[in-house]
Design a protein that fits this description.
It is a single chain. By secondary structure, the chain is mainly α. The chain has helices at residues 2-10, 36-39, 44-49, 55-62, 64-82, 90-108, 117-131, 137-159, 167-182, 187-202, 209-234, 236-246, 252-278, 293-320, 331-335, 339-359, 364-395, 399-423, 429-446, 449-457, 485-488, 501-514, 523-536, 540-557, 566-574. It is built from 25 helices and no strands. The N and C termini lie far apart (83 Å).
């Protein structure tokens, strides 16, 4: 009897375990555990799925009243924050709400918070704040990409024991989680049906009140939207107040779009949570160093010889500059050639070294050759940076040129970490790489590159001749975001602006009043106004600045509570709008 009790205690398992392969719990001498939700399931598909469930997925089913309601509230919150609002003040609140939704769900499932997650949480929040502080389309895309990747790393780090994971393992885990989540899109509806059936079988009137609350909330949303739309159409004052408050257009089409968005987000968030709870990613990382190092030694050895020759030329021609160039080449033309090719080679070198360290057996000769390649990569990075600086000196700044310099700095630090990892493989290379890339990008995002591009390009000492008939070009500057407005629309920082802010504001207001889509639109008035603008602003560069001002004016005027953006606000102040 005692032996049986001892054996039973050994087989007891907690709800959350670090090993995703341990899914058994309960007395092994008793009948296997069968969930009441499986018995009550209305279809055989849900019954068959129980065999592959984990304790966490069973907990989600038994607590659907919490997870279903949490996912529904999150979906509504998502629509409120982000519908037609890609960079408003609500974006950091959306990011904070997403983190709260995830961690509250994990707490309900008994998954502890890891101290290592704090870095990811802070980084995601900083990127979310950056989204409402910039109007640069490039930064907005990169910010959202960073939030997406860091969020998945955070979720995997919380669910799994990832101490031995590297970049390939994380990328494969993220890809598998996303793809497998698509197979769980029906999970919220299956779990809901199982929950209803189980509650009916248990005849628990007290607990079923939560279901009625969920049903009431679900039914109230379309009814509330419909009634609000009817009241908006009945009273113009009420409609203006609602539009001003929420900046929503309560047309029937918009209501359908919002309802679809809420449904998609609800389904996707619940499906992703279900997939994470299944823990189908193997935590163990197998040793893949099964290739003989002689193969890598031959390949990298030949590359290192070419790299050493190239590096010597860079030192003699570019860094020192005391050797004769080929005929027809000037020193500046030579220096401005090939920085994008060198950037590509630097990235490939980083990948080659990582592949050799991951798939080939340890060998001292191979490590020495990889060190040589790393050293040559540092020279290539410096060569590419020097070429880019000379190119900028000749042709001014652009966003891409600044981003290339940023990428070279990051690659330099990543290559430094890889060089250390060659000899000390206990070095936390993955976290080091994530930390370096994240910190440098957050600094890049908050620096507002468009501001510095305008400052540099409008400096009289940097103005260049283009085709011999222009002292400077507004063609690129006029396409910058509102981040550059404090420079472009500032007379002190832009001495080449010939049209006053008052004149531009007057014409921008008239175009907004009589332009396409306005209530007072008239073809005659509109074309007369265009002729007035062309007569008043005849210079092509001044006209580009006016169009830039008009975009700032319209964007600033259209800001509401949800869509408030700090960059647009300061741009509006620079333009004299606020």
């Amino acid at each position: 009897m005692n032996n049986q009790q001892f054996s039973t205690s050994q087989h007891m398992q907690p709800l959350y375990t670090a090993n995703n392969n341990t899914q058994s719990y309960g007395n092994p001498y008793e009948a296997p555990y069968t969930s009441p939700y499986a018995q009550a399931s209305p279809n055989s598909y849900a019954q068959n799925k129980v065999k592959n469930e984990t304790p966490m997925t069973k907990s989600m089913k038994s607590q659907f009243s919490f997870f279903g309601l949490a996912s529904a509230v999150y979906a509504v919150f998502y629509a409120f924050c982000l519908y037609k609002n890609a960079s408003g003040i609500t974006y950091p609140f959306f990011v904070a709400g997403t983190l709260c939704y995830f961690f509250f769900s994990m707490k309900k499932l008994g998954v502890p918070f890891k101290k290592g997650s704090l870095f990811y949480v802070i980084s995601i929040m900083l990127l979310g704040i950056s989204n409402c502080c910039t109007a640069s389309p490039q930064l907005l895309v990169l910010n959202k990409l960073g939030i997406f990747l860091l969020s998945f790393v955070l979720m995997l780090h919380t669910i799994y024991q990832d101490n031995s994971w590297g970049l390939p393992k994380y990328l494969s885990a993220i890809f598998r989680t996303i793809c497998s989540s698509c197979a769980c899109i029906f999970s919220p509806f299956i779990d809901m049906a199982s929950f209803f059936a189980a509650k009916k079988q248990e005849k628990s009137d007290k607990n079923s009140k939560i279901i009625y609350i969920i049903i009431g909330l679900a039914l109230s949303l379309p009814v509330l939207a419909l009634m609000t739309a009817l009241l908006c159409s009945a009273d113009i004052v009420f409609q203006n107040m609602i539009n001003r408050l929420l900046s929503f257009d309560f047309a029937i089409v918009e209501i359908i779009k919002i309802a679809l968005l809420i449904t998609v987000v609800f389904t996707a968030s619940y499906a992703l949570l279900t997939e994470l709870c299944k823990k189908r990613v193997k935590e163990a990382v197998s040793d893949k160093k099964f290739f003989e190092p002689i193969i890598a030694i031959i390949i990298t050895g030949m590359l290192s010889i070419v790299y050493l020759m190239f590096s010597m030329i860079q030192i003699l021609y570019l860094f020192i500059g005391n050797m004769q160039l080929p005929d027809g080449y000037t020193y500046s033309a030579y220096a401005r050639q090939g920085f994008f090719q060198l950037l590509a080679v630097c990235i490939l070198n980083l990948i080659i070294v990582l592949l050799c360290l991951s798939f080939f057996k340890d060998n001292m000769i191979l490590k020495i050759i990889l060190t040589v390649i790393s050293g040559c990569t540092f020279i290539m990075i410096l060569s590419s940076a020097l070429r880019m600086f000379m190119y900028i000196e000749m042709y001014n700044l652009t966003f891409l040129r600044i981003f290339v310099l940023w990428a070279l700095a990051v690659i330099f630090l990543l290559m430094t970490g890889v060089t250390v990892y060659i000899y000390f493989q206990r070095f936390p290379l993955f976290f080091y790489s994530v930390a370096v890339t994240t910190v440098f990008y957050i600094a890049f995002s908050y620096a507002h590159p468009d501001y510095w591009i305008a400052s540099y390009n409008l400096n009289p000492s940097h103005i260049y001749q283009q085709d011999g008939d222009m002292r400077y070009s507004y063609r690129y500057l006029a396409g910058l975001s509102a981040d550059a407005a404090p420079v472009i629309l500032n007379v002190e920082k832009n001495p080449y602006m010939q049209v006053s802010l008052e004149t531009m504001e007057e014409y921008a207001a008239l175009e907004k009043q009589y332009g396409y889509g306005s209530k007072d639109f008239s073809y005659d008035k509109y074309y007369d106004l265009q002729e007035q603008i062309e007569d008043a602003i005849q210079d092509e560069n001044d006209r580009r600045i006016y169009y830039y001002y008009k975009n700032i004016y319209n964007s600033s005027e259209n800001m509401h509570i949800r869509s408030f953006n700090f960059s647009l606000f300061f741009a509006g102040k620079s333009a004299g709008i606020f």
